[in-house]
């Protein structure tokens, strides 16, 4: 199902004229014609991967994904696939928090897209109307250690050009680098103790 159709089905809104005055970095989707929608994306940390593999869930705030009311119900988000006469709903995630009011339709008021690059690199994108909820969800799911690069991309050595293009570059700049650059030196040493690195990676990371 394409993104416009998912938005229509989930929120009941239609695409409007695009507004390029807002930066894409604002995470508002006005630039693609949906000024009432927001989007946050993140890669699962090591702890997040454990939760996902065990339950196919992520951490959410205890508030409704659509408004600021307290959570009183949880709903799944489905993706629809198949042809006209063989449509099938597949559960993407099943623990999205709602209040009683917004749980009445029995359909989650949040779009969840999952991109599984490999067993250790999983990216989620959340689209909804409640920007505060999305930011809180982002923070909850980006705490803890990021998967080390030698596990995220075991076929990449430290000097491959693939860290400067494609998936390697995107993951490095959006998952690994923000995490590693903010770690103080004692935490970097703790990380390398908890997640033993090959010698070439020790040399590169200790040089930074």
The succession of helices and strands, N to C, reads HEEHEEEEHHHHH
Individual helix count: 7
- The total tally of domains equals 2
Q: Which whole number gives the mean pLDDT?
A: 91
Number of strands: 6
Helix content: 25-40%
Query: Percent of residues in beta strands?
Result: 15-25%
Report the span from N to C terminus.
43 Å
Widest sheet, order of strands? 1-2-6-5
Radius of gyration: 19 Å
- Structural class, by secondary structure, is alpha+beta
Largest sheet properties: 4 strands, antiparallel
The low-pLDDT segments are none
Taken from the alpha-carbon principal axes, the silhouette is elongated
Overview of the molecule:
By secondary structure, the protein is an alpha+beta fold. It has two domains: 1-144, no CATH class; 145-208, no CATH class. It is 34% helix and 22% strand. It has seven helices and six strands, in the order H-E-E-H-E-E-E-E-H-H-H-H-H. The protein has helices at 3-11, 46-55, 131-141, 149-152, 166-182, 185-194, 199-207; strands at residues 28-29, 34-43, 73-81, 88-98, 111-116, 122-128. The strands form two sheets. It has a four-stranded antiparallel sheet with strand order 1-2-6-5. Strands 3-4 form a two-stranded antiparallel sheet. The longest helix is centred in the C-terminal third of the chain and has 17 residues, at 166-182. The N and C termini lie far apart (43 Å).
